[in-house]
């Protein structure tokens, strides 16, 4: 069969039927992922010979019929999907691949970021990419008139959905105990409060702390790329969650922390989320291997219960602003009363009414 008869087709789950794609992938000992924005199908004489899907800017479900290996089909899949991404405004493409496939992707311009054993190996195809991200972090710290190699440098990685007194308590504790504190704010827009709002709330809420610098976490720190389970929960099982948590921890410990001379990382204890608890356990195992201490701090309580962002969201849904005010810094409370927060509050209150009515 000649690849000159190659036909390309884009399918959009769940609208389009994925049965044929799932069968093809199963024949290659691969699975059809549930979360795909689209999937490219390559056919020759109506036979599926290759597939590749996109979940955001992550390449998934890549398969090539063994009969057509080394005939450029992988290159075709990657090129077509990159065009789709660029039209959407993305400038990078990520892929998880087993170790034995790394060379194939390197030949297509991908660069390895980090790995956990044979799988996953996280690779990236980008103009700036991970090295550009590291350079931007270093550039931002140049205004500090201190030798980071001679002081105690701490870091926190936070979502702040929204920014609470619990978050502030943890930041202030780190700022008292260490010379410099770097906060990395998650920039995934997969939370109720948009990334730019969360970033501004934390910046304004910590401006009284002279030794605190706030960064945007980007694609490389606790992101959907490095640790997807943090955003989708434990649906894929604990073993996968631990593996990807380790991938994220290794990226931080082996690349980001050395670039900024970070020797401490602070986390809050986790009484509610099983995924966050797994993440903390993995950090506790991995970080000391690279000379980084993990400082797990018991959560700040209010009236006998740990302060949490989920608790704040629940009170917002109930319309109980008095309880909300007890749990959030003034900067967050002011935002919640502003027109900019109205859509968020409306959503939570509609959700609360629906839950209350059993809908």
UniProtKB/TrEMBL annotation:
It comes from the Bacteria. It catalyses: holo-[citrate lyase ACP] + acetate + ATP = acetyl-[citrate lyase ACP] + AMP + diphosphate. SMART domains: Citrate_ly_lig (SM00764). Keywords: ATP-binding, Ligase, Lyase, Nucleotide-binding. InterPro entries: Acyl_CoA_acyltransferase, Citrate_lyase_ligase, Citrate_lyase_ligase_C, Cyt_trans-like, GNAT_dom, Rossmann-like_a/b/a_fold. Acetylation of prosthetic group (2-(5''-phosphoribosyl)-3'-dephosphocoenzyme-A) of the gamma subunit of citrate lyase. This is [Citrate [pro-3S]-lyase] ligase. It comes from Halothermothrix orenii (strain H 168 / OCM 544 / DSM 9562).
